[in-house]
Amino acid sequence: MDVKTKILKAGAKIVLEKGFFDTGLAEVLAAAKIPKGSFYFYFKNKEDFGLHLIDYFAERLMASTSKIYRDESLPYIERIRSVYGRQAEAFSKGDYKGGCPIGNLAIEMGDRNDRFRTKLNQVLETMKKRLAGHLARAQELGQIKTRIDINQCANFIISSWEGALMQMKVQKSKSPHEIFDKMIFGQLLR
């Protein structure tokens, strides 16, 4: 693993636990076991590190969901459902700590820093477009109704999921996921 990835990986773990604002660079450097000078070779400052961290989180989320979306043993709609089910299961196993790093950063930094807000919005828009593409495929295959506007539906699902994660975190319960699953896959996309 290269040094930049080592820094991002160590920082990602800390930021997911503590938040970006409360994460110190010295803490990241100690966790990555690298000298301060190495940090500044890859990042201009903490803000620049945070912007790269958004990309790091987005790439990890895309990689983990891509495996599920490629599972040809499942109908498209079940692939979509499985993405959220697996994320909920992982969140539960982690005692509801962390959650969606993009959602967490959006809540924490979206109104504090325009560069963060812009980059986080780009990631969320990419997530919505990707989900809309999978919904379109499910629609083409007759797995969801043609009357559903897939772009609005993708937006609604992403927003609902982020809200469900927030509630799972504060309730320390899978119940919000169960409601999300029932409403999205048992009602909306049925």
Describe the structure.
By secondary structure, the protein is mainly alpha-helical. The protein folds into 2 domains: 1-43, Homeodomain-like (Arc Repressor Mutant, subunit A), CATH 1.10.10; 53-188, Tetracycline Repressor, domain 2. Helix content is 76%, strand content 0%. Helix 1 (3-18) packs across helix 2 (25-32). The protein is elongated and about 55 Å long. It starts with a helix and ends with a helix.
Précis, in short:
The protein has helices at residues 3-18, 25-32, 36-42, 46-69, 76-93, 101-109, 114-140, 150-171, 175-188. The protein is mainly alpha-helical and 190 residues long.
Q: Strand portion, in percent? A: under 5%
* Quaternary organisation of the protein chains: single chain
CATH topology of the largest domain: Tetracycline Repressor, domain 2
The CATH architecture classification of the largest domain is: Orthogonal Bundle
Total number of domains: 2
